[in-house]
């Protein structure tokens, strides 16, 4: 599997999950939610998470080059996903001058990112396994 394809699929899954989690958070905090918020959150999530997509696309190549064990590589992938989320959040917060109390709105985005990485663990394993098999065939 292509590493960028893996990252894009994980990014898309996180962006599909994000509006559900965001609307759930609004429902819990306010008691009701306007469903018209759903497509707005989806589109803004796509737009604001583009830097994280670029960060993760570079991180995945670094992880594959290190040739660590599966559990260490996956742990590193989770941590670098968190780092890319924090970098992206910092960029968005700085550009739009978001107040600290409004940062709770970023929690659903963080959760959707983590859930997407965890749900796509088998594909991550396939990605690393494919690289190992491909490298062994180059030696012949």
What does this structure look like?
The protein is mostly helical and 140 residues long. It has one domain. Helix content is 83%, strand content 0%. The chain has six helices and no strands.
Short overview:
This protein has 140 residues and is mainly alpha-helical.
Order of helices and strands: HHHHHH
Number of helices: 6
Rounded radius of gyration (Å): 17 Å
In the predicted model, the low-confidence regions spanning at least 5 consecutive residues are none
- Number of DSSP strands? 0
Residue-averaged pLDDT:
87
Count of separate structural domains: 1
Shape: elongated
Quick one: biggest sheet? none
State the helical fraction: over 70%
What separation lies between the terminal Cα atoms? 21 Å
Strand content: under 5%
Structural class: mainly alpha
Give the helices and strands, then pairings.
Blueprint (H helix, E strand, L loop, with lengths): L2 H28 L6 H12 L1 H17 L3 H27 L10 H13 L1 H19 L1
Properties at a glance:
6 helices; single chain; 140 residues; mainly alpha; elongated; 0% strand
